[in-house]
Write a structure and sequence with these properties.
Elements: E1 2-9, H1 12-21, E2 25-30, E3 34-38, E4 44-49, E5 53-60, E6 70-74, E7 77-82, H2 85-94, E8 100-102, E9 105-109, E10 115-120
Parallel strand pairs: 1-4, 7-10
Antiparallel strand pairs: 1-5, 2-3, 3-4, 6-7, 8-9, 9-10
């Protein structure tokens, strides 16, 4: 069983597109109700229609498929960990996702106005 976070977005289609652009794989879709997205590492995201917000969801079986993103949660915010922040800026721009540079990370807002941080993975071998 895998940890699941429920993320509320007003438009399910826009939410799915946003999180797919960040590297999650769409594993299950019940139109106009919910969508399950899977990262490479970290909790599953269950998108549901709503006005915004993130909360702990029920544990679910981990699907076989997965995206390339590594996801974590810090202080109630989703954090995507990437290999190279400069490369990620180019990728996000290509998908038309607006972001702000904020020190060592990028700040985005999903369609439900939920804050999402993108930061580089720590270098291997360093504590």
């Amino acid at each position: 069983m895998s940890e699941t976070l429920v993320v509320y977005v007003p438009d399910l289609g826009q939410g799915v597109s946003f999180y797919q652009a960040l590297g999650l794989a769409l594993e299950e879709l019940i139109p106009e109700r919910e969508a399950l997205l899977a990262p490479l590492e970290g909790p599953l995201l269950l998108l549901r229609s709503g006005s915004g917000g993130v909360e702990q969801g029920p544990n679910r079986p981990r699907p076989e498929g997965h995206g390339f993103a590594r996801v974590g949660v810090e202080e109630g915010r989703l954090v995507f960990l990437v290999e190279n922040l400069e490369h990620e800026k180019l990728r996000l721009s290509k998908y038309g996702l607006p972001f702000r540079e904020a020190g060592e990370h990028l700040l985005l807002f999903d369609p439900g106005e939920n804050p999402v941080l993108v930061r580089e993975l720590p270098p291997e071998g360093h504590s």
